[in-house]
Write a structure and sequence with these properties.
Layout lengths: L5 E8 L5 E8 L7 E4 L6 H14 L4 E5 L15 H9 L12 E5 L6 E2 L4 H12 L4 H16 L7 H13 L1 H8 L4 H16 L27 E5 L7 H18 L11 E6 L2 H4 L4 H14 L4 E7 L7 H4 L4 E4 L7 H12 L9 H7 L4 E5 L11 E5 L11 H9 L16 H20 L13 H5 L12 H13 L3 H10 L7
Parallel strand pairs: 3-9, 3-10, 4-7, 4-8, 5-6, 5-7, 8-9
Antiparallel strand pairs: 1-2, 1-12, 10-11, 11-12
Bound molecules: adenosine-5'-triphosphate (ATP) and magnesium ion (MG).
Pfam families: HerA_C (PF05872)
Protein name: DUF853 domain-containing protein
Organism: Mesorhizobium montanum
């Protein structure tokens, strides 16, 4: 039932519960964002799944996080289970066809999907400070650190680059304070300690190269379907701040990299933000304002953002106001706060005289929702009580074996699997320190001869432009790196992205 211009999502019901009409997302309003809410087990993930299926079939690439692993089934053909076939009948989905979707699995830890990375400079000081939960004073130091890195040409790629830069800043605290304002050793020390914590939580995997190329999440298949990028997020959710910061970074990268396109027949990418409340939980106002701004502006780049969350109260009002396509599953209403959430959710809909919205929200069955999509001229439709269609792909998780096969056959296989560690702040600062040391040693021990180390074959790989003045400590290290580096392909690009690519630069 998917046609050229819309995605079928289910059938609304009349007051006597008989079939009323098909409910659809209009693709031309797919970039006007959306919201899927509901209590645990009410059908949010399945709604996300059928939306992702619909966008993919329409040729729109999708990015989504898989919090519990149950969204991975979208990569496999569905099966004709009784309750699914029954639901298909109820919503007049005929024929009910099964399908597997073109999925690319990603994982910040590189375990359940291709590793996904960003560089420190791409992340920028604002998001990093948020990630590390820094105080205002510490954030000030972080800003200065980025400025120094820019001015002194120090590339910040991974955590050890930032560590090295901070150590260097601590050494020069007095000089730098005079130049940039307050850089105290205790605040630098505090940031360094937070970095260690971050590292122990596995974030070291995430920072570095090769960084994610946005083009790789915007792929389509030869038969014209949009790739569905599924981010494994079960382990990631143990560090909710990393999860939220990462998705925010990705959204801002999309915003920075994609050209202005205005209104299109269909989105260029749809981005599902599951557990969206984590984005806003004790976030400083500046950050919420930035998110609001990005969500508002990213629309004209052809990107639709769909928030998925349990409670509509979790999302700031300014953001909520921009989410045009709504699917509200059941909410509980036992406590006053829950009752408040139900009223808020009900109030956001264009009322339907046939039923009371607030009452309906508490009565919805599993896989049933109040639905209001944008209609003609982008006006929200009158809210309808809607049975959501069953998915065409598998409901529930895939096996580790199935996952391995899909990862092996993915179009980005080999592109991200190896870390590339090229010369950046860490190496440069280390070299500088070493040079200072060497100069001193040389002064003491004149003309001892042969101050330069050489490694056979070393120059062949590195090329003369990259020749380092080697030193004892990094000989073995450098030899390993030179091999890895020759695998990397995106050297120049990453530098450009480093300069332009982050929310924090105030563009
Ligand atoms: N549209 C639907 N058609 C058929 N069955 C559905 C549909 N939606 C939900 N279900 C059934 O309800 C179950 C729970 O749905 P789902 O996993 O989407 O809930 P959820 O809101 O994501 O829960 P949680 O908050 O725990 O993640 C599904 O496994 C499925 O059996
Ligand atoms: Mg779910």
């Amino acid at each position: 039932m998917v046609d050229e211009t819309s995605i079928f999502i289910g059938a609304s019901r009349k007051p006597d519960d008989s079939y009323q009409r098909a409910e659809e997302v209009l693709l031309r309003y797919g970039n006007r964002h959306g919201l899927v809410t509901g209590a645990t087990g009410t059908g949010k993930t399945v709604s996300l799944q059928i939306l992702a299926e619909g966008f993919s079939n329409a040729g729109v690439p999708v990015f989504c996080a898989d919090i519990k692993g149950d969204l991975s089934g979208i990569s496999m053909m569905g099966e004709a289970k009784d309750f699914l076939v029954k639901r298909a009948g109820e919503v007049k989905l005929d024929p009910y066809q099964f399908q597997e979707f073109p999925v690319i699995f990603w994982d910040l830890f590189g375990e359940q999907g291709h590793p996904i990375r960003a560089t420190i400079s791409e992340m920028g000081p604002l998001l990093l400070s948020r990630l590390m939960n820094l105080t205002e004073a510490q954030e000030g130091v972080m800003n200065i650190a980025f400025r120094i890195a820019d001015e002194e040409g120090l590339l910040l790629l991974d955590l050890k680059d930032l560590q090295a830069l901070l150590a260097n800043i601590a050494d020069r605290a007095d000089e730098l304070s005079a130049r940039y304002g307050n850089v105290t050793r205790p605040s630098v020390g505090a940031i360094q300690r937070t970095l260690l914590v971050l590292e122990s939580q596995g974030a070291a995997n995430f920072f570095g190269e090769p960084a994610l190329r946005i083009a790789d999440i915007m792929r389509t298949t030869r038969d014209g379907r949009g790739a569905i990028s599924v981010l494994a997020a079960d382990k990631l959710m143990m560090n909710p701040r990393l999860y939220a910061t990462f998705l925010l970074w990705l959204m801002s990268e999309l915003f920075e990299e994609l050209p202005e396109v205005g209104d299109l027949d269909q989105p260029k990418l749809v981005f599902f933000f599951d557990e969206a409340h984590l984005l806003f939980e004790d976030a400083p106002k500046v950050l919420i304002d930035r998110v609001e701004q990005v969500v508002r502006l990213i629309r004209s780049k052809g990107v639709g953002v769909y928030f998925v969350t349990q409670n509509p109260l979790d999302t700031p009002e300014k953001v909520l106001a921009q989410l045009g396509n709504r699917v509200q599953h059941a909410l509980r209403a036992y406590t006053p706060r829950e009752q408040q959430a139900v009223r808020t959710a009900a109030d956001t809909f264009r009322p339907n005289p046939d039923f009371d919205c607030a009452t309906a929200i508490t009565q919805l069955a599993t896989g049933e929702a109040l639905v209001s999509m944008l209609e003609d001229k982008g006006v929200p439709a009158m809210v309808q009580r809607t049975l959501i269609r069953p998915p065409s792909s598998r409901l529930g998780p895939i096996t580790p074996d199935e996952r391995r096969k899909i990862i092996a056959g993915s179009p980005v296989t080999g592109q991200y699997d190896q870390v590339v560690d090229r010369e950046s702040a860490f190496e440069i600062l280390q070299k500088k320190a070493k040079e200072a040391q060497d100069a001193e040693a040389q002064a003491q021990q004149q003309n001892s001869g042969g101050s330069r180390w050489t490694i056979p074959g070393f120059d062949d790989v590195l090329g003369s432009g990259n020749r380092r003045s080697s030193n004892r400590q990094t000989v073995a290290e450098a030899a390993i790196k030179s091999v890895v580096r020759s695998v990397g392909s995106s050297v120049g690009r990453a530098i450009v992205r480093g300069i332009l690519g982050s929310l924090a630069r105030g563009r």
